[in-house]
Amino acid sequence: MSGFAAAERACRGSQPLPPLRIAPAQPVQAMRFLGRGDERVALDGLLSRAREGRSGALVIRGEPGIGKSAVLDYAARSAAGFQVARACGVEAERELSFAGLQLLCGPAAGRIRDLPAPQADALEVALGLLRGEPPDRFMVGLAVLSLLSALAEEQPVLWVIDDAQWLDQASTQVLGFVARRLQVDPVALVFGVRSGEDLPDLAGIATLEVRGLDDGDARTLLAAGLPGPLDATVADRILAEAHGNPLALLELPRASTPAALAGGFEIPRTVRGRVEEAFRLRIAGLPEDTRLLLLLAAAEP
């Protein structure tokens, strides 16, 4: 028996299931936050402790498309009364020292001069606000600690860093240094990192792995992503392929028509590979000029 057939039989039992019904008027973006109970508990606790003056940091790990960014968005939305700064790692900027740190500290640049002079000089050089030799990263780390402490005297601070695996090394070193030394200030740091990425600079920080959605939430998301009813057999196959990965649940059905999907997916084994193949199939159906434009955009850093 094939994997698809086994999954189908396990899901359906002896009685046929009705088609999965779709609510076409319900955009995915407007849906409530599905599942993620453990993640929400962890983030709510982190923010609650920060409000009480107990600093903390958390690394959110997960495969591509699993919902790390949605979890980080939840943290930012839940941080009522916090000063929130956000940064997202960009592959093209990995060789630019302190590029990630600039996104977080830039809005508070006016407060840097209030820090001890050696720390202020080091951080201003790192951010390109002052000429000088490349600064000592230990001194930059101390400066960021002092800056966070000063900002937190006014109101709690939350820094959210997505795709941390693509941050420049200097920024990652400094942020890891800071996260391991947070103690009694109302400050919270949350990182999003792809599974399988080795980031020794974030070692020692509490980590939470984001898993796939359970069957009920996966079905709800699948239903919200399509404009009409979907045959139960096809839906079960999509659910079996996606393994609860939200991006896969939204993208795999778009790779072909429901009639074509009835025969099952003949695509790579990993969820990431399946999603990439779904995008490839969609792109292959576009006009040649459009594909050329996408190719040029993808090649442009």
Overview features:
single chain, 301 residues, alpha/beta, Rossmann fold, 2 domains, disordered N terminus
Helix content: 40-55%
* Biggest sheet features: 5 strands, parallel
Secondary-structure arrangement, i.e. CATH architecture of the largest domain: 3-Layer(aba) Sandwich
Q: Please provide the count of β strands.
A: 5
**SS class:** alpha/beta
CATH class of the largest domain: Alpha Beta
Beta-strand level of the residues, as a percent range? 5-15%
Task: Count up the helices.
Answer: 13
Please state the average pLDDT score: 81
**Sheet with most strands: strand arrangement:** 2-3-4-1-5
Radius of gyration, whole Å: 23 Å
Low-pLDDT stretches are: 1-31, 260-269
Q: What is the first-to-last residue Cα distance?
A: 46 Å
Quick structural overview:
It is built from 13 helices and 5 strands. The protein is an alpha/beta fold and 301 residues long.
